[in-house]
Design brief:
The chain is α/β, with parallel strands linked by helices. The chain has helices at residues 33-45, 63-74, 85-96, 140-147, 167-180; strands at residues 6-7, 10-11, 14-15, 21-27, 54-58, 102-105, 119-123, 158-164, 185-186. Residues 46-195 form the Helicase C-terminal domain.
Length: 196
Amino acid sequence: MIPNLYNSLYCNGEEREFTNVRHEKVVVNEDSKVVIVGRIMDDMIGRSQGIVEQVVVFVNQVTDPNLLHQHLIKWGVKTPRLAPADQRDDYLVDFRAGRGSVLITSDRMPLGYDVSKPVGVIFFDIPTVPREASQPEPDYSLFHHIAGRAGKSNDRIGRVVTLLDQASDFHLLDNIEQHFDFQASQVDRYGVNMIS
């Protein structure tokens, strides 16, 4: 394992763009997950000690982004819903132009999408490969692609935070850490550090 939090990730033997990324994991219970996302965004965007200008929140399921979107609107965070394909490009253009600080996305985020401003990444869910199995398998490529958005800035350390609220999440993140040879540091400062 690479002990440094600001490590490089390796994929298929090649160094990738994660040299400027700090990986963190936050253990939450399901009931507080959305609230914890709000606290992490406060931390990232600047209402307290912000290090990025925009945040990408990854979700696996279609129901999660709508619930998350509703809570963010209540907190005064302007963010578009996860949009149908015909509206998605407009939202991405607006986000890239800085007309939004939060983008909720799923595996639909275009692989060629690039950002110029520092971006933080929150994995509300860990990306998994769609399959009919009792034990989910991480989608390494999608994790790498989404987390890579945080490492694009040359002048700041990017931040990737993965939320863990189920026993399977620990297994998935362990597999990702082993695959890419890094260790996420556990962060307990957001008020919840136990699984219900």
